[in-house]
Amino acid sequence: MSAQNGKPSGSKEELIEIYGAREHNLKNIDVTIPRNQLVVITGISGSGKSSLAFDTIYAEGQRRYMESFSAYARSFIGNMERPDVDKINGLSPVISIEQKTTSRNPRSTVGTTTEIYDFMRLLFARAGEAYSYVTGNKMIRQTEDQIIELLLSEFADKKLSILAPVVKGRKGHYRELFVQISKMGYNKVRVDGEVMDITPKMQLDRYKIHDIEIIIDRVIVREADRFRITQSLKTALKEGKGIVMTLDENGQTRFYSKYLMDPESGIAYDEPAPNMFSFNSPYGACETCNGLGVIEEFTRNSVVPDETLSISQGAIAPLGEYRDIWIFKQLESILKKYKQSISTPFYKLPEEVIQAIFYGTGEEIPVKSVKYPGQDWYTKFEGIITFLQKQLEHGGESTSEWVKEFMESKTCPTCNGARLKIQSLHFRIADKNIAQLAEMDIRELSAWFAELPPRLSERQRVIAAEVLKEINKRIGFLKDVGLEYLTLNRTMRTLSGGESQRIRLATQIGTQLVGVLYILDEPSIGLHQRDNMKLIKALKDLRDLGNTVLVVEHDKDMMLESDYIIDIGPGPGIHGGRVVAAGSPKEFLAQKSLTADFLSNRLQIVLPEKRRKGSGHSLVLRGAKGHNLKNVTLTLPLGKMICVTGVSGSGKSSLIHETLYPILNRHFFNAKKEPLSYEAIEGLEHIDKVIEIDQTPIGRTPRSNPATYTGMFTDIRSLFAELPESKIRGYKPGRFSFNVKGGRCETCEGAGKKTIVMEFLPDVLVDCETCKGKRYNRETLEVRFKGKSIADVLDMTVEQAVEFFEFQPSILRKVKALNDVGLGYITLGQHATTLSGGEAQRVKLATELSKKDTGNTLYILDEPTTGLHFQDIQHLLDVLNKLVDKGNTVLVIEHNMDMIKVADHLIDLGPEGGEKGGNIIFEGTPEEIIHHPTSYTGHFLKIEMGIQ
C-alpha cells in the first residue's frame, strides 16, 4: 500500500476513514488510517493525539458496541454520547489498552491478570501430588476393595475394632451427638482414645478439644467373615465421611480413606479443585490474612514511634502530648500503681508497665476526679491497643482511616506471605508448590516449565500436556514484551503504567483475536531501549494476526518501525488539532513537520558544551539491600543533573523511590514511610530539603485542577474579592470558591460536572444542567475583572493567563512557571482527572519552580519525559537546567536517550532485570559509559550520540 499526499491508498475495505473530527481541540479534521497496519499517531504534547485516538475513534467504537445491546440492557446503561465527529467508516471492534486502568486491588497480581496463575491452579488440581503437612508423607487414596484386602492381609486372625471418626480436634459437649449415635443403634464410642459405653445424658467438657469415633463393629479378621467386614467398612466410611479407623488388640490405630489421607497421622485433604489454590477463594485463601499475604496490626513501633519521648511529651502517637483529659488521668494512675512517672522516657518503663498501657490491667484502678477534687473514680483501663482495635472495628470511616495510620503491615505469620492454606501448599509438582512457582520471575519460571515434562509421571504428562502448552505460550508473550523480570505474585498496583499496559498487551496477544482495532497509549513508557525492539515485535505480531494497531507514541524507534505515521499539530492546545504530516516512515521524513525534523536529525537536542563540576559535596547511601539490590553504595555528586538508568527491573525504583527518598523524607519532614533495608546515609548536611515529583494524579476528582494545585487560585479569589463590585456586595474570597456554600452552584456543589453511575461500566461525568459546567451561581458570575468572570478565568489557557495577569505578580509567577514547563495549552480549571501522568508531573514541577528555592534542594523525578514530544523534552531540559544552575541537584530516573545524553552524571544499574540486576555497574559521564563493555545504556547511547 502506498500513500499519496499523506493519505494511504487502497480500497475502502482497507481503510478507516474519519470525517469532521471536532472533539476537544481537533479542528474539524479528516483522517484516513490504513487497516491491518501498525500506525503511530504522534505530535507535540496537547496537540490532540489522545482526542483523536481515544476520545473519537475509541469512544465511537465503544458507543457502537453499546448500540448492539438490546433496548432492555441499554435502559440500565443509558446511551453513550456520540463523539463530535461527522462520520467514521470501516471501524472494527475496538480494544483500548491504556495506562490509567491499573487495578488498585491488592488481590490483582501479574499471575491472575495474565491468566498464567489460573492455568497453574488447574495443573496443580489435576496433576499435583499431595503430602501431609504433619509427617511429610505422601498422601494416599484407597478404594473399598483395597482397604478390605489390606485388613485381611495385615490383621489376619486378629481382633479388630472398626471405627468411624465423627469429631476431630473440636471443642463442645456433644450431648446431642451421643443421643443421635445411640438412636442409630450403636452403644460404644471411643472418646479421646478411651472406649466407653454411651449412657443417658452423656456429655463432655465443652471447653476441651475432643476426638470422637463410633465403634461400628468388633470382629476377628478372617476370610470367612469378608461379607461382614465389607458391610461394617461401608457403614464406617459413610458415617466417617470417607474415612475409617481401625483399633487393634494392642491399642494401635490406623487410618484408611477413600480420599487423600496420611495413613500415619490420619489427616485427610479435600479432593483438589482449582479454587483450592486460589487466594481469592475461601476454599484456598489463608484464614489469617484472607489471602492477602500480609496482615495489618498494631505494634509497639507503630504506636510508639519514638521511645526516647515520655508519655507526657507524646510518646504514644495516637494520644499526642499531655492534655488534661480522662485517658491521661488513667495512665497516670496506672503508672503510679507501678511506681513510675508520666514524664519517664518510654524506653525506661518496665515491660509489665508497657503491657498494662497497651492491653489494660483487667482490674479497677482509682483515678482522681477532675470535676470533684479529692474524689477517686474506680475504673478499668482497657489499654491503648484494645481501644484502637475497637475504633477500627466499630468507628466510622474517618475514624478507621485515622486508626490505620498507627498500624504496621507484617508478613502473615500463618502462611509466611504465600497467601494460601497449609493444605494447598502441600500439593507439589516436581518438588515445588504453587506459591514457590509464583515467587519465581518469568525468566526462571520459563526455564522450570521447559524442564518439567521429563520429571512427570506418564499419567501426569498426559493430564498436563494441554495446560502446559497454554502456560508456556503466555510466559512467552510476557518475555516478548520485555517483562521477564516480574514475578507472578507481584501485585498489579505496584507496577508502573507502562508495565501494566504491556501486561495487558501480552494478555491480548494471548487471546489471538483477529480483525480488532487495538489502541495503545505510549506502551514504551518505562522501557529501556534494549527491550523496545521486543515491544515493537510484539505489536507487529498483533498486526500480523490480522489486526489494526494504533499507537499514540513519541518513541523514535517505534515511529521508524511502523507502517504509517500521523503527526497532529502544529502546536499544543488551541494551536494544534490538525494533521500536519502523514505517510509511511520514508515519506514522512521528507515532509515538513516538527516531528519529521527531529526524526531526520534536521533538529536535535544538542549536547551541553561541558558537563557541570558540581558543588564538590556528595550524598552517600551505603548498603542498600531492599528487593533485588545487592548491598550497593550510591554516591550522588551534588549540584549536578544526575540520571539513574538501567533496564526495566534492574532496581532503579527500589534504590531511589523506596530507599533513598523515604530516608530523606523522614529526615526532613518526619514522614512515616519505612525505607527498604540500608546501612547508613552520609552528607545530609549538604541539602536542606527533598522534593519528589512523580506522575501520580494531582487529584482524583473534578474539584482538583492546576489553579488549585499550584496555589494561584487563592490569589485569584483574593483579587476578585478586592474588586469594587465585590466590596459593594460584601463578597469575601470564599464567595469565589467552588468548594464552599455561597457562591457556587448548589446543584453540582461546585464540581461543574455530575457523575452518572454506570453500574458495570466506568462512571461517566456530564456537565451540570443548572450552571452548564461553570461551577458558580449567577450572582457570583456577575463580578468581573477586565470583563472576565471567575468561571471565564478558569476556562483560560495558561498561555492566555500569562497575558491576562501580567500586572499581578503573585499570580503571574505561578502561571508563568506552568507556561515554562510547556503546559501553555491546558486551562487553569482543567479537571485533574483529564491530565495525563506526564502533565500532572509537570504541574507539580511548575508548582515547585514558582516557590523560592534555597539552592540546596534535591529534586527527584521519575521519567519526566513520559508523554513528551522531542520539542517538549527541550522545554523540560531548559527548566531543569535552570534549577541545577542555581546550585540544586536534580535526580532523574530515565530511559529516554535525549535526557540521558545531556546529564552531568550517570548511574547505571543492572546488568539485567530481576534477580540478575541490583548492582551499580557504572558511575560517570555519558562520554565514559559508551566505552563500558556490559552496559546496555552505554551501547544505545553510543548509537544516539553518533559515535562509531
Describe the secondary-structure layout:
Elements: E1 3-4, E2 7-8, E3 15-21, E4 29-34, E5 38-43, H1 49-67, H2 71-77, E6 87-89, E7 94-97, H3 110-114, H4 116-127, E8 129-130, H5 144-154, E9 159-171, H6 175-183, E10 188-191, E11 194-197, E12 209-220, H7 226-239, E13 243-248, E14 253-257, E15 260-261, E16 268-269, E17 294-297, H8 300-303, H9 326-337, H10 351-359, E18 364-368, E19 376-380, H11 384-394, H12 397-404, E20 408-411, E21 427-428, H13 434-439, H14 442-450, H15 458-480, H16 497-511, E22 517-521, H17 529-544, E23 548-552, H18 556-561, E24 564-569, E25 578-583, H19 585-589, H20 594-599, E26 618-624, E27 632-637, E28 641-646, H21 652-669, E29 680-682, E30 689-693, H22 706-710, H23 712-721, H24 724-729, E31 753-756, E32 764-767, H25 778-781, H26 790-794, H27 798-804, H28 809-820, H29 837-849, E33 857-862, H30 870-885, E34 889-893, H31 897-902, E35 905-910, E36 919-924, H32 926-929, H33 936-944
Parallel strand pairs: 5-23, 5-24, 7-22, 22-23, 28-34, 28-35, 30-33, 33-34
Antiparallel strand pairs: 1-2, 3-4, 3-6, 8-21, 9-12, 9-13, 10-11, 10-12, 13-14, 15-16, 17-20, 18-19, 24-25, 26-27, 26-29, 31-32, 35-36
